[in-house]
Amino acid sequence: MNPRRQAVIHQQQRARRYTSNTDAYAFFNLLTGPELFDPVELLLPVHRERLFPPPAANTN
After folding, report:
1. What is the spatial distance between Cα 12 and Cα 22, in angstroms, rounded to a whole number?
2. Verdict on whether the full-model pTM lies above 0.70
3. Distance from chain centroid for Cα 28
4. Which end of the chain is flanked by fewer CB atoms within 10 Å, N or C?
5. Residue 22 to residue 15: CA distance in whole angstroms
């Protein structure tokens, strides 16, 4: 078998194993934990308040 194909199969099996052993709450906690949340938050742009309302579309 192609070595790349073996690597893909191994990666898929590992992902299946992790998803079958993880519930939604654990996954949410992983995503919002300090290991992932803080670095991603630092990469986000600064929030800007809207100065003017969005233009209304004419529906004549």
Report:
1. 15
2. no
3. 10
4. C
5. 11
> Angle 24-31/34-43 helices, nearest 10 degrees?
50
Euclidean distance between CA atoms 34 and 41, whole angstroms: 10
Q: Per-residue confidence at 49, pLDDT binned at 50, 70, 90?
A: confident
Contact 36/30 with Cβ under 8 angstroms?
yes
Helix (H, G, I), strand (E, B) or coil at 58: coil
> Which residues of the chain form beta strands (DSSP E)?
none
State the residue for tokens 């919002």. Answer: 32
Q: Amino acid letter at 11?
A: Q
* Residues 6+ away with beta carbon under 8 Å from 27: none
